[in-house]
Amino acid sequence: MKRRDFIYLTGLSTAATLMPGIPVFGNPISPERALERIDPALKKQMADVALNAARSKGASYTDVRIGRYLNQFVVTREDKVQNIVNTESYGMGIRVVANGAWGFAATDKLDKDSIARAAELAVATAKENSRLLSEPVRLAPQKGYGEVSWKAPIEKNSFEVPIKEKVDLLMNVNSEAMKAGADYITSILFLVNEQKYFASTDGSYIDQDVHRIWPTFFVTKIDAASGKFETRNALSAPMGMGYEYLNARPQDKINGITTLYKGRYDMVEDAKAAGAQAGEKLKAKSIEPGKYDLVLDPSHLWLTIHESVGHPTELDRVLGYEANFAGTSFLTLDKWQSGKFNFGSKLVNIVGDKVQKGSLGAVGYDDEGVQCGKWDIIKDGILVNYQTIRDQAHILNLPASQGCCYADNWSSVQFQRMPNVSLQPSKEKKSIDDLIKNVEKGIYIIGDGSFSIDQQRYNFQFGGQLYYEIKEGKITNMVRDVAYQANSQDFWNACSGIADESDYRLGGSFFDGKGQPSQSSAVSHGSSTALFKGINVINTARNI
Amino acid sequence: MPILTKDEAYALLKKVISYSKADECEVNIGGGDSANIRYARNSVSTSGVISQNGLAISSAYGKKVGTATINEFDDASLEKVVRRSEELAQLAPENPEFVSFLGPQTYQESKTFVQTTASITPKQRADLVAQSLQVAKDGKAVAAGYLEDSIGYSAMMNSKGLFAYNTATGTNFSVTVRTEDGKGSGYATRGYNDITKLDTKTATQIATQKAVSSVTAKAIEPGKYTVILEPAAAAVLLERIIFGLDARTADEGRSFLSKPGGATRLGEKMVDERVNIYSDPWHPDLPTSSWSGDGRPQEKTSWIEKGVVKNLTYSRYWAEKKGVKAIPFPDGIIMEGGTKSLDELIKGTKKGVLVTRLWYIRDVDPQSLLLTGLTRDGTFYIENGKIQYPIKNFRFNESPVIMLNNLEELGKVERTVSVESNANYLLPPMKIRDFTFTSLSDAV
């Protein structure tokens, strides 16, 4: 689903009122219908029609994705339910190689004739494209897995939870935030179930069931006298989990200057804190610009990892395929080939991971039938690998794809997307307090805020939700108007402390945009709290 | 699915309404075809043709509303979708902000449909891309680009007798050309309703020229500079003011348009008096639909006149509550300019920076509308009326409100496309003093 569609359906933007009242990515359905399943045997029959039709027209390789994409949103503000939407999108995408070129066609009519016609169209498109090709597609070898399946290890299917229970939760969230001092709150539950079937001429028939959940809110507090306002967004993470994510137990909470959440989330408690903290932000001291040591919480650091490590290690960007939109990458192949490009300090170990339990990127197999795994991208500070798919593996002399292929819908062409890219925790015992106690002049940043980075991923600027000043090893007071700017390589070389595994948490994005036409993907980034020395902080306050 | 004519759409919608048993209902229908070709590394990478259509019906019982959609238009399917929306409405909680659907309206005909775009062939599309690729190859440079064209119709009807219909065509093109050594990069983007106006060859030549002339960029100190923003760069900043024109957010005190004590800047001078911004659905160079998605007529509307905020946008609920006219969010934004070309603006500049494109624009502070982002694909130092040399890219932190107060001069208006929102605008190049660059970027 595209961010634009999300904004439209949630009614979060007035600009959305210009769009005709048609949800463009799926059809609203009754909640009960979301629980119906499609028999894999039927999907295999449909897939075989496509595989055979494409082969008979001259395709040397074909893969078929039959996708049923279910979304549910519940959107509220203050004491009102604004929207409850159930949508479904169901259809088939067929991708082929013919005459050495890719071709793609998709259909939502799943009778035999329509499927065969789409397969023919995909082959015809490939043959047309082959005339403008500079080099033929080279696919890394991939064995067929036969008929296999994978299910996200969820405890409670969100689509089975009654709407009323969800509405009651959000009404409680809003009421607690208002009681704690918020003037406005918008809260949203966003639930996703991708039922994906993949088949290819390699002999795989893969049935997968993927679940995601994202509870979030936006609180605003206004000081009427001065006309100033401040916001505080939820500290939740979107997760590859079921409704159990909303059942936080004592062991899921990290108590500190504000409560942080690990693996489970207490939305009501966080809303209450947000209501109060939005008011505190209004009274906080405006930051003095300069160099600070930054202690970054995982609820903030995930986005810095995403932008400054995740995107520049996408091999398609490195090669120039995204040059016209998202951009290219400073991590050029020669830096990888040298084997000694110091991306970060020796403490920095970053992995690509498509299997981590509870993460947004976790699947058994990617969207071109490759079994997923985990690999090093930055090892002891050195760039050692990228993220690849089948037609790129040969460029890195890899024997197989790393399983990073994804399409956001049956009607979208799959391409290289980011796996979960995560900073590994310290192996030595180290707590958040251990990091803070060695900081003389610093800022502790919690939650993600404003973010911007250049098209080759050198220069970035990030804000957060909560900023606390650190003086001589102790958190003193809240500050505001903070953003930090750095160069990716300088920043990661300034990493001088990482907390241990007991602090490791996931953050993530439901709407990572890439490609033309733009596609969204959901991805997690894990880390423990980390310390970065001497980072440039600017003051963002202005008067207009 | 063919494009439904006005009569066909009317008959189909009439039938859907006839199935309704709710207190009131409203139906939107729309569809069309779009096609795209994507290329990179001087070679086509993907292409696609997408045909979509859909019908959405909202049924209301009192203030309980349910919406359902369908993409099959036989009688049984249409009746089924009406019933489903009614079931969902019965299950929904009351929405206190629901406003009864709008009654019949009169619309002037839109000028958004151009037959030549509607009848484009795959060969024409491929030729447009081939011409772009040829320019890059001839210039020993590397092109990555995207061409998209579309034809579509939309119509709506409700149980109160409102009926609206429109057809539209459009094309957006963008190309990034990089030198083979990766040291220079240039960009061009074009948007039209009429694809015969699209000249991919000239656009790619401009991008190539920018790429070649931006090689060996020098680093200059960040700080406050006089800048000349080409329309593509100005668009991504200016549109943030437009996106923020919502009256409710301003009235609630959480917008750059809010003032202490609950007042707003509506009616006040906010920017330089030479700033005039309006929307006009019948402007020949930027035609847009004559009605908004909820049936409200789009009229020629002034948003900022001589620097004064003239109008804000309203939802029908908020307008009713405030007792004012419910002006919908506009489709096409036009800013008045001057008579000078970009070259003439450069000629009149003693010291400054020419910014051809801005990128990754994000809000930093909604209170001041402070934005951050970076220059990209060709940034140049101007001295004594001439471009002297290419310079390294900058990160900026600036508010478009402050920027329009620091206005020096406006050039000749042209149609451009926002790389952030894909929206088309008519904007002049702008010369702005004291534009705030806060750091350098090594990106090319």
Explain the overall architecture.
By secondary structure, chain A is an alpha+beta fold. Chain A folds into 2 domains: 3-242 and 258-281, PmbA/TldD superfamily (PmbA/TldD fold, 2-Layer Sandwich); 286-539, no CATH class. Chain A is built from 10 helices and 26 strands. Chain A has helices at 3-10, 40-56, 112-130, 163-179, 267-283, 298-310, 315-319, 333-338, 432-436, 488-493; strands at 27-28, 61-77, 80-98, 101-107, 146-151, 184-200, 204-223, 228-233, 253-254, 260-261, 285-286, 290-296, 350-353, 374-379, 382-383, 405-406, 415-416, 420-423, 441-453, 459-471, 474-480, 482-487, 495-498, 505-514, 519-527, 530-539. In chain A, the strands form 6 sheets. In chain A, strands 1, 2, 3, 4, 5, 6, 7 and 8 form an 8-stranded mixed beta sheet that branches. In chain A, strand 16 (405-406) and strand 17 (415-416) form a beta hairpin. Mean pLDDT of chain A is 92; it is low at 1-26. Chain B is of the alpha+beta class. Chain B has 2 domains: 6-211, PmbA/TldD fold (2-Layer Sandwich), CATH 3.30.2290; 212-238 and 337-440, no CATH class. In chain B, the strands form 3 sheets. In chain B, strands 7, 12, 13, 14, 15, 16, 17, 18 and 21 form a 9-stranded mixed beta sheet that branches. In chain B, strand 2 (43-61) and strand 3 form a beta hairpin. In chain B, helix 4 runs parallel beside helix 5 (200-213). The model of chain B has no long low-confidence stretch (mean pLDDT 95). The chains are: A alpha+beta (544), B alpha+beta (444). At the A-B interface, strand 1, strand 3, strand 4, helix 3 and strand 8 of A face strand 1, strand 2, strand 3, helix 2 and helix 4 of B.
